[in-house]
Amino acid sequence: MPAHLLVRSIVPDVQHRAAFDRWYGEDHMAEAIRVFSPSRCWRSWSEIDASVHYAFYEFDTVEALKAMTSTEAFAEMIADFTRTWDGKVTRERDFIQSVQLVEARPAPLD
């Protein structure tokens, strides 16, 4: 089953949000794709709390996810985030393993 690295970032100052969004979208996620080699990834801003940003990185297995997070390259990505946004953005990471996947199917035609 797939596993995901979830990064939840909080950008409390509205004046930093556009720069954070641009940096994450143009720099950080592109580097993460090269470094992490996820199956796919996406990011989103919360509609409930505009200061919350989510990034998801999907891996084929939880073992692949754990192996990636033990690399020096992953540690360097964390350090870059901290250098760039220390004091302006807080973040937390979680590992999520899928336990059930349900594909939506189109309704049958009459």
TrEMBL record:
InterPro entries: Dimeric_a/b-barrel (IPR011008). It comes from the Bacteria. This is EthD family reductase. It comes from Rhizorhabdus histidinilytica. The lineage of its organism: Bacteria, Pseudomonadati, Pseudomonadota, Alphaproteobacteria, Sphingomonadales.
